[in-house]
Specification:
Helix content: 25-40%
Number of helices: 4
Largest sheet: 4 strands, mixed
CATH superfamily of the largest domain: Urease, subunit C, domain 1
CATH topology of the largest domain: Urease, subunit C, domain 1
Radius of gyration: 30 Å
Strand order of the largest sheet: 6-5-2-8
Shape: rod-shaped
CATH class of the largest domain: Mainly Beta
Low-confidence stretches: none
Order of helices and strands: HEEEEEEHEEEHH
Strand content: 15-25%
Length: 128
């Protein structure tokens, strides 16, 4: 092979391989979703990538799938994804029943009575 032909072939190979995007490997890709963000303009995406428990990108399906790869991909079926929700709820009935096992709350008719009974119980039985 002549030098100019080899040089052109080498430059072509280098150019073509440098155009192939390198995909970042992540733990999870979720696509086909309605992703609501809390950035300054409340942008909306359809996909996101997660690595080591943190969002690394939010965007459109084609963009995320083109730039990231993962062994675990989840089709969200168009369902919404909202940031920052924590399940902070209480089972008040169970909590109240548990309290009656320790502090006698029977017959109390006001918040002040309830507070006094709980303070007395706490004084009589520290640590409960």
């Amino acid at each position: 092979m002549k030098k100019p032909t080899f040089l052109i072939l080498l430059i072509s190979i280098v150019t073509m391989t440098s155009c192939i995007p390198n995909k970042q490997t992540v733990d999870l890709i979720v696509y086909n979703a309605s992703v609501y963000t809390l950035d300054t303009v409340f942008s909306k995406g359809t996909a996101f990538a997660v690595d080591k428990g943190k969002f690394v990108a939010v965007g459109q399906d084609a963009e995320i799938l083109a730039n990231f790869e993962s062994a675990q991909k989840l089709d969200a079926g168009g369902k919404p994804v909202y940031p920052g929700f924590n399940d902070g709820h209480s089972h008040f009935m169970g909590y109240g029943l548990a309290l009656t096992q320790y502090a006698n709350l029977v017959g109390l008719t006001s918040f002040d009575d309830l507070l006094a009974a709980l303070q007395k119980f706490h004084k009589d039985y520290p640590g409960h």
